[in-house]
Amino acid sequence: MKKTLRSVIALALAFMLTFVMGTAMAAFPEKEVTIVVPFKAGGNVDLCCRIIADEMTRILGKQVVVEDREGGGAIIGQTYALGQPADGYTMLALTSSFVTNILSGDTDFGIEDAAAIGQFCFDPEIVVASADSGITNMDEFMAAAKAESLTNSTPGFSTSHHIASLIMTEQFGLTPFSYMHTDGSADQVVQLAGGHAQVGLTTYGGAATLIQEGKIIPLAVCNSERHQALPDVPTMAECGYDFVYGAYRGFAVPAGTPEDVIGILSDALKQAMESEAVIKAFNDSGFPIMYMNAADYQAFLATDYANMEAIYYLLDEE
Amino acid sequence: MLQNILAGFAALFTWENILFLVFGTLVGLIIGALPGLTGNMAIALMVPITYTMSATTGLVFLTAIYCSSIFGGSISAILLGIPGTISSFATTLDGYPMAKQGKAGQALGISTISSVFGGLFSAIVLMFLTTVLAEFALKFGPAEYFAVAVLGLSCIASIGGKSIIKGLLSGFIGLFFAVIGQDPQRGTKRFVFDIHLLSGVTLVAALIGIFGVISVLKSAEKKSKETGPIPEVDHVWIGWKMCKKLLPTWLRGSVIGTIIGIIPGAGTNVATFLAYDTENKFNRSKPKFGEGNPKGVAAPEAANNGVTGGSMVPLLALGVPGNATSALFLGALLLKGLTTGPVLFTEHADVAYSLFLAFFFANIVMAPLGLFLLRYMKKILSIPESLLGGIILAFCMTGVFSISSSSFDVLTCIFFGLLGYAFYKFDIPTAPLIVCLVLGSMAESNLQQALVANKGSYSFLWTHPVALIVLLISLVSFFVPIITKMVKTYRKTRHPEVVAASDLAEDTSDEMDDD
């Protein structure tokens, strides 16, 4: 009897506690939360954000909407989002371009103006070769790339794929590539599949079909583990080269946003990334999920900034 | 094959799908008709809505929006002289003059039937030839893209109006504006005074400025002097006779549109320029192109809807989107767990074939729906111009702002509106400017890439057969109209009376030829 009473009291207390915590949490958000995507609607980042926004709406109990503000190499959207009040109602979809844009000197904001919420996706670079190039593995790639200047197709100047190629050249002492900067990843893979360029670095999603068709040959994955869609393709480390690089995607808010608000958003992102709906949609779309909490993502950004700063002169030399 | 088509039919014909087919067509028509709002935008917004639908329903819905928004663009092009999207720019050149001559109904009718024809043509190609033609898409390297861009640019010679000098002037100003932004290969910033110009001038904003703002200024100017009569509007149905006459134009337009559509990244715009220019060069009937010739509406409209099906060929067969819109389709397919490529045809044949059929039926639904709606839409013209001007301006500015919620785009629009007005005052044609602005960066970027691939040598100009042939055609296409014009001016100054007589003879024979 006593035992039952005690458990009833415990239960009631637990209930009250959740209730109190619940109301405390309900303070934020009071209205809709906007995710600013500094890229075109329908692109990879936009697609990811729309999937997550849907789930976060369910978790936060208030509408989470996606707003695309493209242009200016993502600077326009980034400037806009970071210029909003630091109240957590405007989040920026933050990608590697944030760091490179700051280094380009064109931005009014610095790395300290963004407070991280968390990372949700890390899309590793995959080293690929055109089937026409005759290169079929990483050793052949390195030998060829050291011997002569290979044509390298990228989806644009200073994109993460271009920068990854530059770092690789520096790190492994390759003959600088002859870059063909196309207009987006669709053009890039066509040039490779058609044999108009020899090699390139790309992410899995855009090249999936052409890889399955055998027109583009994946040589190695620039990650610490193999790509789940390409179980037979070795990592760079397995080939004997220490090289990890990829496109990362996460959220940030203007610096000065209250810690508890950042906590709520960060937790909501974590929950969303663990939900079945998001996992399925990400897997189906070929976006690899990699969650990182606010503190880790902030530290990651700082490291990336330092790394990029060290090699940024390579872009200027181009 | 037949079995797959039947499976596609079975998957397509449910109440839900038909409902969304009609609804999508309506949405596309209206979005397409509003200046600045594009089908692309509509589809991007609708993709998340398709999450909850079955794969087939979602794709049917998006397909309907895609096809009808391309057609919808012609409505404002014809009625208001403002291309709703760049792909209906060429339609403006003859569609608007036709509307001013009281033939708005006829122009809209032609645009409807031409769009349907082009759309059906490309749907059939998509259904039967996808796997064969996909390989063709991969043959295009930078050298070939450069050649296609040059071919597009060569049309400025014939759409440049009466004066060669003024046409070229307009073209070069367009090329200058195309230079603004980051160098595609080196990243050097060129004329970037504001961060908004980093990726170049926003094309749609410039286009709406040149056509929208200027048309308001023109009518304001006229209003202060006289009150023009309200143009009459005739029937939308164009009659079988006209259909028969336009059939060759439709076929050429559809073929051009479908081929350009299949080449990834070449774009709807090039297709419409080329289709318009081809008809212009082969045309022998009056009135002249640019003065309200029905073929000038039929060719680009057949071509831009021809692109719709064509752009899906590389997407379905290779997983490579042919243009921005089909990139959105790729997203929608992936979210449904469907992969592109041959696997789609074998493992998900019902979805693949119902998509083909959706392209087919979206175009069929478009005809009655379009003709029905246009009976009412053409009434826009009965609004007095002085009132209409303000409304148009408001629509244009809202549309431009909605591209990326940027007030800089609105400024761009106003700037190009004033520039267009200056052009108008000095009697300089604006069409070459638009063509060069749209194609300039494509030509530049691909030329640079081709040079990189060839280790800095220009030899690719004659070692790539496709590029060589296309470039030779461009030369002919550029110089023939210029030489003809020069010969005509020369003859006019030497023997005015002979030329007048021969012109008259030409006129009468054309009249007879017409009816």
What structural keywords apply?
heterodimer; A: alpha/beta; D-Maltodextrin-Binding Protein, domain 2; 2 domains; 6-stranded mixed β-sheet; 3-stranded antiparallel β-sheet; 12 helices; globular; B: about 525 residues; mainly alpha; two-stranded antiparallel sheet; 2 strands; about 75% helix; about 0% strand; disordered C terminus
Which class do the helix and strand fractions of chain B yield?
A: mainly alpha
Q: Major sheet of chain B, described briefly?
A: 2 strands, antiparallel
Count of beta strands of chain A: 11
How many H/I helical runs of chain A?
12
CATH topology of the largest domain in chain A: D-Maltodextrin-Binding Protein, domain 2
The low-confidence runs of chain B, each spanning 5 or more residues with pLDDT under 50, are 504-515
What is the CA–CA distance across the termini of chain B? 44 Å
Q: Low-confidence spans of chain A: pLDDT under 50, at least 5 residues?
A: 19-25
- Can you give the mean pLDDT of chain B? 85
Q: Percent of residues of chain A in beta strands? A: 15-25%
Report on this structure.
The complex is a heterodimer of chains A (318) and B (515). Chain A has 318 residues and is α/β, with parallel strands linked by helices. Chain A folds into 2 domains: 32-123 and 246-317, D-Maltodextrin-Binding Protein, domain 2 (3-Layer(aba) Sandwich); 126-221, D-Maltodextrin-Binding Protein, domain 2 (3-Layer(aba) Sandwich), CATH 3.40.190. Chain A has helices at 2-26, 44-60, 75-82, 97-104, 138-147, 160-172, 185-193, 204-212, 259-274, 276-285, 294-311, 313-317, and strands at 33-37, 64-68, 90-95, 114-124, 126-130, 151-154, 178-181, 199-202, 216-221, 246-254, 289-292. In chain A, the strands form 3 sheets. Chain A has a 6-stranded mixed β-sheet, with helices on both faces. Chain A has a 3-stranded antiparallel β-sheet with strand order 8-5-9. A two-stranded parallel ribbon of chain A has the order 6-7. The radius of gyration of chain A is 22 Å and the shape is globular. The N and C termini of chain A lie far apart (80 Å). Chain B has one domain (2-514). Chain B has helices spanning 2-12, 15-33, 39-46, 55-79, 89-100, 104-138, 142-154, 156-159, 164-179, 203-223, 239-262, 268-282, 294-318, 324-335, 342-347, 349-377, 385-404, 407-425, 431-453, 460-463, 465-494, 496-514, and strands at 181-182, 189-190. Chain B starts with a helix and ends with a helix.
